[in-house]
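so i finally got all the pieces together for this one. its two components total, 576 residues if u count the protein bits. some of the lines might not be protein, just check the labels. i wanna see the whole assembly predicted at once instead of chain by chain like last time, that was a mess tbh
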Amino acid sequence: MNEELRAALRRWMPQPRWGVIAAPYLWLILFFAIPFLIVLKISFTRMAIAMPPYTPVLEYIDNALTLRLNLANYLKLFSDSQYVVAYLSSVKIAAISTLLCLLIGYPMAYSIARMSPTSRNIALMLVILPSWTSFLIRVYAWIGILDGNGILNRLLMGMGLISEPLQILYTPAAAYIGIVYCYLPFMILPLYATLVKLDHRLLEAAYDLGARPWQAFWRITWPLSRAGVIAGCMLVMIPAIGEFVIPEMLGGPDTLMIGRVLWSEFFNNRDWPAASAVATVLLLLLLIPIVIFNRQQQRQMEAR
Amino acid sequence: MKASAGQRWAGRSVLLLGFAFLYLPILLLMVYSFNESRLATVWSGFSTKWYGELFRDRQILGAAWVSLKIAFWTACAATVLGTMAALVMTRFHRFPGKTAFGALITAPLVMPEVILGLSILLMLVSAGAMLGIPSKGVIAIWIAHVTLTLSFVTVVVSSRLQELDRSLEEAAMDLGANRLKVFFLITLPIIAPSLVSGWLLAFTLSLDDVVIASFLAGPDSTTLPIKVFSSVRLGLSPKINALATLMILIVSLGVVVGWWLTTRRERERKAA
């Protein structure tokens, strides 16, 4: 009897196990999930001169609970071509940058994975080291290089290759350089992680059977490194679509990206509802890539 | 299979070019911090005067202090919560809501910062209006940074937990230790290095963030990145080069020493 009682009590008493789940879970619900719902709510309001500066969604007017959803923010997003162009050009800039990262990162990751374990460790640390130093400072470093009077232009003019300085800074080209530069380590690391596990006997077998090097690559190495390619591309592309600092500092007025639109709606126009609508549509746009990334990460964490 | 000489040569030159791309901009930035001229790209002589000016700039020093405090407390909270989440992800099999938990823990890794900053601000403003508490400031930035960084800690710690030899924990459990005791006496000492890397990662991420902090900063909580961003938005400033050089040197030193310590430890472990 006593034993049974104790067993029943133990089942109903809060266990440390539940505390371990609850603490991070509650934190993320409170500060990550609920904020999105509030953004969604505010995207259906109108700007108002008040604090907080938007109209309520639910109101009690004349004994009636009134739900007022203002769709004007969304209609504006789809009718004003500026927003559509900004979304499309963000996706384009992010996609091209991701491809460039893959083209530069894959050979680097491949070479590192083929090194001896000691030099592999050093090379890996050299890849990670820049991403530990300030992101802002790494973007800033390019201003001095790409400036009209900057290091690159002086070098090229000194060598007599050009007679007039190239205008690279404050053009989309500078934004591409900045994004590729800052996100390259995020491409290399997951690629390296899959390439280093590659079973070389498979390649040997392919060569023994008479495969050319590029055939062996496309039919063995590439398909086996697909998990790393997907993870790397998602790690670069998703944040790059919403990037603000790089286009703002390097891209000049011609580099239209949705992160800048959101920023200016919020900080310059002080239109919180419009900024919320921009954020909601951006999130919907990113939903599928984020789900792909999530699945892949979860599989990795639960492996074994 | 032996790589041919040509392949090895190609691999080396790819790496060399890649590392040049990664490191030249940083090195140039550091060299030009010793430039005497105010025009940060025209070399006119060696000088350390920008370092002197940097240390006389009260605003920058104040902002740096605010940033360091936020980063310290962010890293502490994110390490505790992130380690808990890593245990949940790797050790707890199936509980109601696990899929949702996994989604919540991995989404911040890729979420654009503008969305994160805006959403947490709007949430805190709504809560602040209801509860009558201030919704902007140092605490708000801390909350947002913990949310951002705890996922990164989870990734670092869970990869260590996966490599861990489970038989040690099982043996302790067989000898009658309860789960809590096993965690603190067996698991924690083994995964401690990954907690240190997670802590440092959270610290640097917090120290680095400008976008989220801009949404959440109040009048007395200007962080260092906000200060740097506002002064370089319109071009170069040699004082910022000096600041950048100091930050890069400190971080590199920390990373290299940390790397050296862990590789030495691993070598000793393998030798033993």
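Chain B has two domains: 55-229, 236-272.
Chain B has a mean pLDDT of 85.
anyway lmk what u think
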